[in-house]
Amino acid sequence: MEVAGQRLPVVIRRLERARRMTMRLSPDGREVRISIPHWTRSAEALAFAEGRRDWLARQLSTLPAAGPMGNGSTLTFRGEPLIVTHDPEAARKPLISEGCLILGGQPTSLAPRLQRWLQAEGRELLSADLAEYCLRAEQPCPPLSLSSARRRWGSCAHDGAIRINWRLVMAPDFVRRSVVAHEVAHLLHFDHSPAFHHCLKTIFEGSIHEANRWLKAHGRSLYVPFG
Asked: What are the two backbone dihedrals, phi and then psi, of residue 174, each rounded to the nearest 5 degrees?
């Protein structure tokens, strides 16, 4: 379907437990996702999306502006906005100081260096989160893989491998940690059963509802362009 001048694929999923139709835009804004009860026709789902075209357009408007990060751009780190400041006399490695993220080096390489810095910071924070929640869940800590997925924030495979989207380092700490806790709970319950939710509530210290609400409202803002 076409929304605000963009052509977006519509992905329809039939869920056995679904009792109503729900729709959302993927975090990166590249597709419309509709979940429907198994008895619902695809044509009804498409009509549902067509009738909410204005809502989808408003969701698209929340996506970060196109164009790579550079001097003067605003970058969020652990939920706090920082002004990217290029200083030829500064070190190449970014330094946080008084609301600014200061770095030297060639101005043409700012964007990829900022991405590498965020990924390194993300790996350190997420590794610590994973170790902590595995300890709380009394599970061995699996190796952490960073994900660049545009469809999900985290995943836990049947073999216990856990992948977390590195862009969560830009979100507030409680949001990032909620995703890690969610995947650790899947080490014990590979579903979304009451037992899974009880486990998650037991190991996570914050409000899962608040974290999910933040991701729903602001998750697309984490997909800032770096290239």
From this structure: -65, -25
In tens, the pLDDT along 166-195 reads: 999 999 999 999 999 999 999 999 999 999
Among residues 181, 114, 127, which one has the least CA distance to residue 154?
Answer: 181
Those residues with Cβ within 8 angstroms of residue 28's Cβ, 6 or more apart along the chain or in another chain: 63, 150, 151, 220, 223
Residue 68 lies in a domain: no
Query: What are 78-111's pLDDT values in tens digits?
Result: 999 999 999 999 998 899 999 999 999 998 899 9
Q: Rounded CA gap, 152 and 126, in Å?
A: 16
Residues in CB range of 182: below 8 A, 6 or more apart: 154, 200, 204, 208
In this structure, the answer to whether residues 185 and 207 fall within a common structural domain is yes
The residue range of the domain holding 153 is: 74-222
Q: The dihedral of CA 180, 185, 188, 190: what is its sign?
A: negative
pTM comes to 0.77
Q: Please provide the DSSP assignment of 24-70 as one string.
A: EE-TTSS-EEEEEETTS-HHHHHHHHHTTHHHHHHHHTTSPPSS---
Same domain membership, residue 56 and residue 93: no
